[in-house]
Amino acid sequence: MVHRERRRHRRQPCLYCHPQSYIRMVQHLIERCLVFHMTRDDCIQALAKHASAQPVVTLTVWEELLNKNKSFFQVYYRVVPQSHPEYKPSERFSEGTQQIAMR
Ligand SMILES: [Zn+2]
């Protein structure tokens, strides 16, 4: 892949020059998405828009987080319906807490 990210070096780590820092940044941003109960696809879109993160990178980091935190994501996917993108995060949250309360 051609290195075309030079102008971004001042703003954020570069995927090609500093992959470790870049992955950490993406991971940090994904964790913020999780706080807002965003779906994986919402998160990929948000990072692409606001941090110019390539979807494939976000997806890879997401999968890595999932593998490291399987029990967290089992609950997360139950609380945050991944197949209802029309829901607002706040609606997802209240629905999720109701589901947890019923158990
Ligand atoms: Zn670079």
Helix content: 55-70%
Using the CA coordinates, give the radius of gyration: 15 Å
The backbone outline, from C-alpha atoms, is elongated
Low-confidence stretches: 96-103
SSE string, helices as H and strands as E? HHHHH
Termini separation: 49 Å
Strand segment tally: 0
Q: What ligands does this structure carry?
A: zinc ion
β-strand percent reads: under 5%
Domain count: the total is 1
Give the biggest beta sheet.
none
Structural class: mainly alpha
Mean pLDDT: 81
Count of DSSP-assigned helices: 5
Task: Tell me what you see in this structure.
The structure is a single chain. With 103 residues, the protein is mainly alpha-helical. It has one domain (7-102). It contains 5 helices and no strands. It has helices at 19-35, 40-51, 55-68, 70-79, 89-102. It is elongated. Residues 96-103 have low confidence and may be disordered. The chain binds zinc ion. Zinc ion binds at residues 3, 5, 9, 14, 16-17.
Sum up the structure in keywords:
103 residues, mainly alpha, elongated, disordered C terminus, binds zinc ion, CHP01589_pln
Helix and strand topology:
Layout (H helix, E strand, L loop, with lengths): L18 H17 L4 H12 L3 H14 L1 H10 L9 H14 L1
Helix pairs in contact: 1-2, 1-3, 2-3
The structure holds zinc ion.
Zinc ion (ZN) binds next to loops.
Summed up, what is this model?
The chain is 65% helix and 0% strand. By secondary structure, the protein is mainly α. The chain has one domain (7-102).
